[in-house]
Amino acid sequence: MNLAIIGLQWGDEGKGKIVDLLAKDYNYIVRYQGGNNAGHTVDVDGFEFVFHLLPSGVLHPKKIGVISEGVVINPKELLKEIDLLETKGITPNLYVSLGCHLIMPYHIFIDSAYEESQKIGTTMRGIGPTYIDRVGRCGIRMADLLNEKVFAQKIKLNLLQKEPILKGRFDSDEIIIEYLSLFERVKPYLADTRSILNKAIANSEPILFEGAQGTLLDIGFGTYPYVTSSHTTVGGISIGTGISANKISKIMGVMKAYATRVGEGPFPTELKEQEGEYLRMKGREYGATTGRPRRCGWLDLVAIRYAIEVNGINSLVITKLDVLSDLPKIKVCTEYRINGKPCEFQPWISDWSEVEPIIIEFPGWCRDISNIKDYSELPEEAKSYLSAIEKMLGVKIGLVSVGPRRDQTLNK
Ligand code: IMP
What we know:
It contains twelve helices and 20 strands. It is of the alpha/beta class and 412 residues long. The chain folds into three domains: 3-100 and 188-251, Adenylosuccinate Synthetase, Chain A, domain 1 (3-Layer(aba) Sandwich), CATH 3.40.440.10; 102-186, Adenylosuccinate Synthetase, subunit A, domain 2; 255-411, Adenylosuccinate Synthetase, subunit A, domain 3 (Adenylosuccinate Synthetase, Chain A, domain 3, Alpha-Beta Complex), CATH 3.90.170.10. Strands 9-7-5-2-10-1-11-15-19-20 form a ten-stranded mixed β-sheet, sandwiched between helices. The longest helix is centred in the middle third of the chain and has 15 residues, at 172-186. The mean pLDDT is 96. The structure holds inosinic acid.
């Protein structure tokens, strides 16, 4: 059985913990889109690991991590992450696709240059400009590094094409030397991951697909233009790995018990004042990649219903329920209205300030739940809150997370 784990909000739903938790039942853990803009935090035995590029399941011995074609890679950051794990005594089993596009130093520069005129609030990791080059057919892939001449030609062409914006800031020889030397260390991991994964499927070896970012940041179905540059929805798996969509057996959606967003863009249930600050402090809502404070707000079921439909979610995971524990009232958005008329979540809404979120309230439980080990021990108010969400979304909740550790997870 192959499982997809997809974020249903604007990323940071706690997918890393869930992937780490479930990884033991899968042979391969696959990152298929995005790059080191992601920040997947895993807490094991008191150590906190933040994965940006490596699949979160690589902490389990004998599991094979795969970074497939749809991911863009900064080789320096990849090696940094591998080195960090090795200092903790972990040598990841890893395959990296020869088809992955490379993030070059000029992509990082262009990312910040674009932010000056169009503020998206990107992670400044060069993700968008690398995907632009991929679509523009001038991108450079891992496989290009196998042939020094081809690689050098491509670098020169890119610097020439981008000269109006780069204005002589980058020297082709410097980049060529640096990347060829990084390549020597990346080479042992390179493989035809499409073929490896399809063979694994043919041998009935289970695969876990680890989504990065969230549905509402999808390039096609998110809150465009305030999105990332990849397909964060389930469709991203097929186009990012070369595995047919009909090979994905289960699609699990991860949502936080409230909502957060980093960077610019619409956020109908955002809390500006004290309540937002409360969620930020209690939930430690600071970007795992950039350290930026996350914007916080109430759970938005209109957006989640949309995300469930786009991805075909058949099981839900709710994370960070413990963060709501001290609140006497817990609020949830159940409907959007524009000029008094109900409306659905639509990625092309041009003026989100017109969207009025209709909020309902639930009584809080006002007690610590982070040490509870069985779902039945949750306070009645928490169970009613979860049952109501399940009913309003029409999908069953399978797991509830009440803290960052593996043992702080309840089966429902
Ligand atoms: P980019 O992916 O760096 O181009 O950033 C585009 C948007 O996606 C910005 O609003 C980022 O804050 C957001 N973003 C990118 N990666 C993540 C993530 O892993 N979690 C949350 N937001 C993200």
